[in-house]
């Protein structure tokens, strides 16, 4: 099915605003100076296959694999920082990734992702940058993909473990929740964009419209390649 121009236009502008709003939310709500002032953080929206739609390219493969082997439900929030389990999509333990699954009509549509470099994650030296490290265990706490939220309920045990392993527990908790809030903004705004498409009588193939916008030189939906170029161009403005 060819994605119509109404769908492309509405979703494109929604994606552009979505990333800007996630950025602003993290800057306003994060506690550590590394994230809030040095801007060592990033955002992304990937589709259910892990392909980047807009934002920085990271974590897509990890999330696609997680969803294929673990139940993922609305209200869940996934967090992780392990470079090995993420195929190098995360560069070191100081960068924690938080991802919110976005559903539409019962199906996983996309992920709203935010990552940030924490002030301290229990490494040999603060800021998770020990110059004398010889193995990953010197870099701090390793977090495999786990559910920070399960169906909208915060997993206090996970948060307690993370805080206990940081020299700056309040900042660690505050920054983690700020990243989670940014992912939830992505969920809210993408839902709004899809509803606007429906209100204007756009195509009902929402996953197809999102696929058309993935940042790839050869989209699987080749019939939508022209619209994909339009969507990518608008999302990057």
UniProtKB/TrEMBL annotation:
UniProt xrefs under InterPro entries: Hydantoinase_B, Oxoprolinase-like
Hydantoinase B/oxoprolinase domain residues: 4-197
Pfam families: Hydantoinase_B
GO cellular component terms given for this protein: cytosol
Molecular-function annotations in GO: 5-oxoprolinase (ATP-hydrolyzing) activity
Gene Ontology biological process terms from the UniProt entry: glutathione metabolic process
Region (Disordered): 197-237
Full protein name: Hydantoinase B/oxoprolinase domain-containing protein
Taxonomic source organism: Thermorudis sp
